[in-house]
């Protein structure tokens, strides 16, 4: 009797080293072959579309790169995917559905929108939109957000998309990738030909193959992060980001300045890597 191919594949995976059994690890090895990260001292594109799951992700993860792009005359547009209404630990302890909690969520969402606009001004970014999905439920609103992103891909025609890397340990951050893929499917191959994706790090350090030297614009990044005062009240993001960006500089630029790290790949490769994580 013939052995079903699925059984054979499973047996081969069990007999292989752990890095072969893990589909994502195997794909990364094949894609990277342990090359050192590419170091850029200029923006990584001329038309950058940035997907920020929450107001503050754009500043924390890639604010220096965005300010660098603006200074170089590149076009930058930021899309805030959710309204950030759950970004307060005390608020989340209130009874769900209560009038007090609903009022607090609406107030925080409005405040965070104002903070986002101030942060973009600090970075020099003028183009933006708010997709309005509820914080914490981006995946449930994937279709609605993708419907908003698809026209941007068709009409605005970015050459580079920045978003949280698919390995970032936050449900909304992972869902941002699904929103992009769904929008790409809606926009069609012609609108996305040649598109490069840069996965950025926010909640989790990533497997970086590209770093951007942001020392020249790091003061802008600090000012942008400071604009998100509601989020700094409970977490010292400034100190955390300073350490991460200094580490990225040390590990890739001989110890000088500040750098932001990305997992960069052409859209088809990036999507294949993300799908390996789900395999």
Automatic annotation (TrEMBL):
Domain of life of the organism encoding this protein: Bacteria
One Pfam match: PIG-L
Signal peptide extent: none
InterPro entries: GlcNAc_PI_deacetylase-related, LmbE-like_dom_sf
SUPFAM superfamilies per the UniProt record, alphabetical: LmbE-like
Designated name of the protein: PIG-L deacetylase family protein
